[in-house]
Amino acid sequence: MMHKKGIDTRILGKDVLPMAGEYTGQVMLDGISAYLRANAPELLAAQVLAPNAPGENTLAADLAKVVPGRPPGFCTGCPERPIFAATKLIEQEMGPHHISSDIGCHLFSIMPPFELGATTMGYGLGPASASAFNSPDAKRRSISFVGDGGFWHNGLTSSIGNAVFNENDGVIVVVDNFYSAATGGQDILSSRADNPTKSTKHPITDAVKGMGVKWVRHIDRTYDVTKVRAALREALTTKEKGPKVIVASSECMLNRQRREKPLMAKAISGGERVVKPRFGVDEDVCTGDHACMRLSGCPSLSVKKLDDPLRDDPVASIDHTCVGCGNCGEVADAAVLCPSFYRADVVHNPGRWDRFANRVRNTVTGFLQTRREKRRLTFADA
User: Fold this and answer.
1) Helical segments of the chain, H only
2) Where in the chain is the domain with CATH 3.30.70?
3) Domain 273-375 - what CATH class?
4) What does the pLDDT look like over 57-108, one tens digit per residue?
5) If DSSP codes are grouped into helix, strand and coil, which group holds residue 250?
6) In this structure, are residues 218 and 249 in contact, taking their beta carbons and an 8 Å threshold?
7) HSE on the CB side for 209, CA within 13 Å?
8) What is the assigned CATH class of domain 81-254?
């Protein structure tokens, strides 16, 4: 493009970056540092001017001392997290299963705290790879995952069609987040948004049934962990032969926040009444066993050290990044964990009724707290 425009500029690339392999943060840092060191050293900080061996950048070493590790994982509020929480609960109940993963956001299920998945072949090939375990003598059915992007890419034929043709008796979960989320949130056939230039709103369930699948279940809210677990249990125990397909649908939270946050901010600044749900953890109820984190892994769910000398273990805590999806409470309820999670509705630009209701609540709460305080057993000084 620059040559066609007659721009005489030297272009560098593979002489500072490797020909193959993953372009990790360290690889990019080494390559860009080498380029700047040779062409514009004045743009570099003093500590990176001296040449280093690949992987031994001084700046990176300094950052490693102060920046905590950030392993890959689902976004805050991701609707795919409760699917894998339900899968963990099913395996606790029925034992381990062979789980075939797929390329996409849902591949983060192989990371802690879920650590699910045994094989991964390629985009849309999760159920296809599970066909090798389609043995009539198997004690447990295989479970495989495919995203909606991979499903339309080639999963409908390579995975669903193959399962129907070969009478595969496994369970296939189609993770439907309304977009090709892993590649940037582009619309696909099953997207529910209006697209002026593309044809959308074609249900995955219709395509699956058209391919010949008889056993199909659709869950339109993946945050209902109990419902997802019940669907998985039914699919793994039904006597009906052939592929069992569960389409688990909820919108990608990242795309949803991109759409809703500006609208909400505009409404608040315009003086409109806006209610934003937030979740929290009651410190007095939380036992500190952190079982909720082992079944959630939400970035907004962390730990908090109490000042109470009688309690050594830090309790669970939800920080300001919470988007109010409710997954933490759903997991706690489905797994029969402690009832320490609560929901609070934050009201922006409250009206008269909101203010009156708040005064009534504060009055009642204060009365009950005062009465309880009077009944407390106290020890007077001798």
Assistant:
1) 25-39, 58-66, 81-94, 126-130, 148-150, 162-165, 204-211, 225-237, 253-269, 291-294, 327-334, 352-375
2) 273-375
3) alpha beta
4) 555 566 667 776 667 888 889 999 999 999 999 999 999 999 999 988 889 9
5) coil
6) yes
7) 10
8) alpha beta
